[in-house]
Amino acid sequence: MNSLETLADVASQVRVCEKCTLHFSRKNAVPGEGPSDAEIMFIGEGPGFYENEQGRPFVGQAGKFLEELLAEIGMKREQVFIANVVKCRPPGNRDPLPEELAACNGYLDRQIEAINPCIVVTLGRFSMAKFLPNTRISEIHGHPVWVNQRLIVPMFHPAAALHQPSLKATVIADFKRLPEAIEMARRGGHKKIEDSPAVPEEQTPDEPAEQLSLF
């Protein structure tokens, strides 16, 4: 299958998936959307109320804020692929459970492989943990890291800025630096970082060898 066919196949499987208990309360699964050859992939945490209603990612207030952030750097959401680490809404917007993350992990891996983005922007700590376990988002947000030949840029979830106004300026500042990371990835291609991609918690973001200091 080509990338478009793979994404369509994943989406069709996600919509009828019963691998975890989230399927009992979902109205619509949310596979993700965007170009099959997107250069940038955004990965959030899980669908909310409006996403569950429409079957599309980031269509609530956090989605509107994401579109505003993209516009600030001259981009539109139609240019990027947007997905989540879990494809069905956790009840009450609670955090996804380990077994739910595990159930959806294969779907997300197939999407990443099919799209092959040069940059993955993780939105929130659960999507960050897929690539950078044992790290704190408060320490590493906005700092690009090479993981398995792909540039990962961890960021706070847009919803966090809406719930905690003190974070809004931080989220905006991190997004404004994203074009520089994009250009670095384009020029440098994929670069493999040996050993563990994780940044130890006791180290600051500028210290570990795994971290790429662009900014």
Tally of domains: 1
Tally the helices: what do you get? Answer: 9
Using only C-alpha atoms, the radius of gyration works out to: 16 Å
Mean of residue pLDDT?
Answer: 88
Order of helices and strands: HEHHEHEHHEEHHH
In CATH, the architecture is 3-Layer(aba) Sandwich
In one word, what is the shape?
Answer: globular
- In terms of DSSP E residues, the strand content is 5-15%
Distance between the termini: 39 Å
Largest sheet: spatial strand order: 2-1-3-5-4
CATH class bucket: Alpha Beta
Kindly report the CATH topology.
Uracil-DNA Glycosylase, subunit E
Structural class: alpha/beta
Quantity of strands, as a count: 5
What is the helix fraction of residues, given as a range? 40-55%
**Name of the CATH homologous superfamily:** Uracil-DNA glycosylase-like domain
Biggest beta sheet attributes: 5 strands, mixed
Unreliable residue runs: 190-215
Summarize this structure briefly.
40% of the residues lie in helices and 11% in strands. The protein contains nine helices and five strands; from the N terminus they run H-E-H-H-E-H-E-H-H-E-E-H-H-H. Strand 4 and strand 5 form a beta hairpin.
SSE map:
Layout: H1 3-15, E1 40-44, H2 49-54, H3 61-72, E2 81-84, H4 98-115, E3 119-123, H5 125-131, H6 137-140, E4 145-147, E5 150-155, H7 158-163, H8 168-176, H9 178-188
Parallel strand pairs: 1-2, 1-3, 3-5
Antiparallel strand pairs: 4-5
Helix pairs in contact: 1-4
